[in-house]
Amino acid sequence: MLKTFNREKLRPFALALMIIGVLALVLAAYRYVDAWTQLQNNQAYQVEVNAQTVTPENEAMAQTLIAAGMEYRRLNLQRNEALMIGGGGLVLLALGWLGSDLISGKKRKAESNSAPA
Predict the structure, then answer these.
(1) Residues 20, 87: Cα–Cα separation, whole Å
(2) Does the predicted TM-score (pTM) go above 0.70?
């Protein structure tokens, strides 16, 4: 026979979704701030922000600018990934919150229906 589905068994999953969402938000914030602070010291970023044109005087300077440009792209990617992780964390947090709220709402509704008038 079919058992009745107990919604209380879903409460740990809703709580787990909320915890994973908060952890994803913390990770995203850390990665974003880390990338942002490293970008502030990046030579390629400074050249782009100040709209400068740089003509390398020797091969060593050219290689330094190429390395800074590669690092700049990597940091931009890290910053963009942090935003995506943060968005995913918000979605998980919202789903967990919604699930928990639905479980609590059904429980309160059942309790109010069973209470004597």
Answers:
(1) 12
(2) yes
